[in-house]
């Protein structure tokens, strides 16, 4: 079962409210999830929007807001919702178009995407404002990651090793020691997990423009660890072939394989090699302010 689009929550919300009972918003959301979306997995239920809300809860909340806009529900008091007579007589299918009633919202989007108006208009109709915000952020994030990976592939190999070590330090793995560039036995850095260096993590960083990390690369890495530690991180700008991943999994050592996509995702998360360009604020009504009257 897929997570419903916000417009797909219209009918479930109205079905829960059809008795005329006044629901707290939180209770309504929980009952809609229990009655109509019980087949969602734990992973799906834990998915979040960019603002940190649970995605399924956010979709239901937007569905409620649009139903109010269309006159199908109303808010008798703060944090509560109740069905209207119009809501009780709703059709078996209800779309955003029915609720918006040719609102200027769609004119705005048509101007923005005239060249692809058919497909884009359909996307808008099934996307909540939060979905559109998240989609925009995801597009920007993917473009940044793609550009970042390309830059990593063109780096000097020695500087790439420094980037990997800086990332691991930023992730909280402690101070690192760079190995000498000659005769390092395939080890590019060592991280001491404790101040005395009793517990170590060996690092191998391979900058590839083409090709994949092979089984022999993992085998050589294991050999270079020479009984000094049982933990290693192998990082590449490329990918690992199936045999390399199997070798890493079956080794007596604990070896983490980080490919190019995972690498740029971590760099993006921990702000390594990138910087914040703009911060946007999303505001909402302060109900407590108006409760003071």
Automatic annotation (TrEMBL):
Keywords: Endonuclease, Hydrolase, Nuclease. Residues 152-267 form the Restriction endonuclease type IV Mrr domain. Its EC number is 3.1.21.-. GO terms for molecular function: endonuclease activity; hydrolase activity. Pfam families: Mrr_cat (PF04471), Mrr_N (PF14338). It comes from the Bacteria. InterPro entries: Mrr-like_N_dom, Restrct_endonuc-II-like, Restrct_endonuc_IV_Mrr, tRNA_endonuc-like_dom_sf, Type_IV_Methyl-Rstrct_Enzyme. Residues 6-89 form the Restriction system protein Mrr-like N-terminal domain. This is Restriction endonuclease.
């Amino acid at each position: 079962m897929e997570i419903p689009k916000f417009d797909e929550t219209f009918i479930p919300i109205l079905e829960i409210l059809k008795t005329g009972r006044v629901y707290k918003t939180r209770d309504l959301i929980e009952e809609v999830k229990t009655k109509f979306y019980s087949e969602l997995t734990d992973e799906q239920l834990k998915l979040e929007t960019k603002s940190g809300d649970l995605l399924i809860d956010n979709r239901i909340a937007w569905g409620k807001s649009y139903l109010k806009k269309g006159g199908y529900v109303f808010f008798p008091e703060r944090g509560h919702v109740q069905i209207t007579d119009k809501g009780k007589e709703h059709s078996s299918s209800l779309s955003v178009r029915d609720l918006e009633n040719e609102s200027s919202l769609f004119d705005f989007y048509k101007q923005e995407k005239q060249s692809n108006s058919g497909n884009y208009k359909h996307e808008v109709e099934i996307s909540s404002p939060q979905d559109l915000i998240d989609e925009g952020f995801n597009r920007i994030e993917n473009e940044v990651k793609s550009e970042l990976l390309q830059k990593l592939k063109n780096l000097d190999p020695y500087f790439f090793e420094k980037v990997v070590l800086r990332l691991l330090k930023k992730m909280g793995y402690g101070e690192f020691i760079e190995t000498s560039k000659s005769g390092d036995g395939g080890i590019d850095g060592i991280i001491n997990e404790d101040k005395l260096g009793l517990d170590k993590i060996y690092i191998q960083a391979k900058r590839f423009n083409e090709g994949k990390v092979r089984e022999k690369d993992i085998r050589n890495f294991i050999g270079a660890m020479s009984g000094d530690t049982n933990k290693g991180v192998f990082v590449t700008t490329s990918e690992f072939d199936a045999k390399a991943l199997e070798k890493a999994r079956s080794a007596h050592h604990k070896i983490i394989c980080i490919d190019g996509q995972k690498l740029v995702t971590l760099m993006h998360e921990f702000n390594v090699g990138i910087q914040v360009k703009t911060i946007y604020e999303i505001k909402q009504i302060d109900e407590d302010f108006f409760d003071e009257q």
